[in-house]
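user: At home tonight, take the chain set out below, taking as long as you need, and be ready to discuss the fold:
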Amino acid sequence: MTRAAIKALPEDHFRKNPNLWTGFAQITGGKTTPNSQGIRLGNFVAIRTRLKGRWRTSSPGRKPQAGLDDAVKKGNQTMKEFASMYK
């Protein structure tokens, strides 16, 4: 969770959504370590969707390395597209 995301929350967000407070307090209340920072991968959903399709093509009997190589290529392309929006 970034500081920008926290600042973007409406001031009364947790008063209106008290069920969200516990998770938020747990995420922000601990000591930050490399293991607690979570995933920060732009466009994660699009990358996951592309990878799932490629994993199916890497099943036994279907040239697994080619499917995995294609998954890497498509995932890298998606990350580049995402990064280009924030230059």
About this structure: The radius of gyration is 18 Å.
